[in-house]
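S1.2 Input.
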Amino acid sequence: MIALVAANLGIVLAAMTLLWLVSLAIRDASIIDPAWGLGFVLLAWVSLGRVETPDQRTWLLVIFTTIWGVRLAGYLFWRNLGQGEDRRYGEMRQHHGARFAWVSLVTVFWLQAVILWFVALPLQCAAFYASGEPVAWSGLDLLGGALWLLGLAFESIGDVQLARFKADPTNAGQVLDRGLWRYTRHPNYFGDFCVWWGLYLIATAGGAGLTVLSPLLMSLLLMRVSGVTLLEKTITERRPAYRDYMARTNAFFPGPPRSNVG
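S1.3 Output.
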């Protein structure tokens, strides 16, 4: 199993290096964003290809990962199309100057390659344990599938609601606080959380329970590092109304809006 996951790390690092070369040619490091979801799809299929007789659970994990990753990549590609380089990478480019190329390789492309490889360990290990024998489905499979479906729904519906809100010019400078966004400030991040805990539970039913650090890392990133915390770091400066929205709306886990604020 160690050889399998180590080889997979090499594959995803190589893929991200090629993507980095493309980013240099087009001067846009933002292409890493839609590639994030596709990296998981790549790892899922590569792991499947190493299984002589994959069982139904392994196929389910690969299919679920593919649906999630392709949807996310397609949405981010559509959202970023024609927008130029994301301001995060633009600020990095300005800060590092001529060194940006090598800095972006290590801190953007390779770092994300290692992170997604680690988060995807449940998929990789479940493939290793696949026997090809008929699957004995369990309650973990059912719970994991339900959690994955809930997460996919939150991500998809939340993205559609946000896209429609932004498409209306009368909403310029306003804050979306309707639909799923009424109950959580980040339905897409909460959806990601559910997706990866759901996949982990299914992988656990297939013998990969020791990979619990993978969904824990994803949870930490979403709630404390590159998700909620990073996004909201400067948003109140750009949108003053967001401060009131934060006061009445849960940051991550959905819940009823707070009415006794102000």
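S1.4 Remarks. The chain has two domains: 1-131, 136-262.
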